[in-house]
Amino acid sequence: MLPPNRVAYIVKRYPRYSETFIVNEILAHEEAGLKLELFSLNAPVDTHFQDIIAKVRAPVTYLSATGLKADDFWQELHKSAAIIPQFWTRLARFGKTDAKEVWQAARLARAVVVGKLEHIHAHFATSATSVARLAAGLANVSYSFTAHAKDIFHESVDQAAFAQKLADAQALVTVSDFNLAYLQTQFPEHAHKITRIYNGLDLERFPYEASVRREKRIVSVGRLVEKKGFADLIAACAELKAKGLEFHCDIIGSGELEDALKQQIQDLKLGDRVSLLGPRPQQELAQLVQRASVFAAPCLIGEDGNRDGLPTVLLEAMALGTPCISTDVTGIPEIIRHKETGLQVPQRNPHMLAQALELLFSDKTLAETLAHQARSLIEREFDIQRNTRSLRDSFGQAEPAFAEAI
């Protein structure tokens, strides 16, 4: 069966500053000629957006159910029933279902039928996939989804609901071999449906530049949340300063821990060494990463099980030629191979992080070797055109009418 030509993409919120990997994917699909329509369950709330979003041609429909009233709910269902055969029979097969998600799914299903869309793909195995599953059942098309990290490992994940989504989907894509092994162990009866496809980069936008002459500057990027490990990075910087090293550290991003991190910087008297720069456009972000001598991603597993899968900014830093240090969390060891493509330190260990930073400051030969080998790995495994081709192939591997067998 050939891959579909017209696909609905559904996400929880679009656009989001931190989810450039989804935009990269959309742009690569469009470049390959795939016709997309985007659907977002919620309106954007970020104040900054990456500049590449302007290049997306696909229209966006918002399915926000804020303030949904009973009259609105039933009007939408009747509109959908008027154009979708067997609508009520198909809806009844799902049993008890969240009303908001039913309303969103009915709107999406109607758009799928009217727009002659052939497949639905969702990012994250949470509400977006719940709505995709319902809509696919109503419109009698296939669906697939990509699971990343929080939607797999967080303590709030409903394993039974995840299993049902996987059972009805034609494919589940995940972003690391670590995730793949975990999911195939958790859901052995559906292991054949699960595949690993790495997030990709448009490598032309991330040209390699040698790091040997860069100043002693650390850079780190991400939302200011626990799983990013920024508190450990600041503690490591305090250790470097105590040893008399001259350096500066830029942390780029925003989030709920901003005040706590500012207080930590103040308490450790690091105002002259560590800067919180807030969010930055992607072009400026690339420049900041490429002028640094080290990129640090001290990721950790949060108290609630939340963790990163494979941070896109880490891939970007590797592509740009900035030597990288990260931890042993989830899929990161697949790209940061110790003393081969970067340095790996244990999570929650500021002392060893400080030692790794000092090593890359002092050993320029090692730093350049790691950076060169990291770029080679990115070119082999993370080319966006090749990886999205694999994703499109996964869209067409099963019969679409799964709804008739629910």
Characterization of the model:
The chain has helices spanning 20-31, 70-83, 87-92, 99-114, 127-139, 150-153, 159-168, 177-186, 230-242, 258-267, 282-291, 312-320, 350-362, 364-381, 384-395, and strands spanning 6-13, 35-42, 60-62, 119-123, 142-147, 171-174, 194-196, 217-221, 248-252, 274-278, 294-297, 324-326, 343-344. It has 406 residues and is an alpha/beta fold. It folds into 2 domains: 6-200 and 384-405, 3-Layer(aba) Sandwich (Rossmann fold), CATH 3.40.50.2000; 203-381, Rossmann fold (3-Layer(aba) Sandwich), CATH 3.40.50. The strands form 2 sheets. Strands 3-2-1-4-5-6-7 form a 7-stranded parallel beta sheet, with helices on both faces. A 6-stranded parallel beta sheet has the order 10-9-8-11-12-13, with helices on both faces. Helix 1 crosses helix 15 (384-395), helix 4 (99-114) crosses helix 5 (127-139) and helix 9 packs across helix 13. The radius of gyration is 22 Å and the shape is elongated. The mean pLDDT is 94.
Topology, number of strands: 13
Strand order of the largest sheet: 3-2-1-4-5-6-7
Number of domains: 2
Helix count from the secondary structure assignment: 15
Order of helices and strands: EHEEHHHEHEHHEHEEHEHEHEHEEHHH
CATH fold naming of the largest domain: Rossmann fold
Structural class: alpha/beta
Low-confidence region ranges: none
pLDDT averaged residue by residue: 94
Q: Name the beta content range.
A: 15-25%
CATH architecture of the largest domain: 3-Layer(aba) Sandwich
The main sheet comes to: 7 strands, parallel
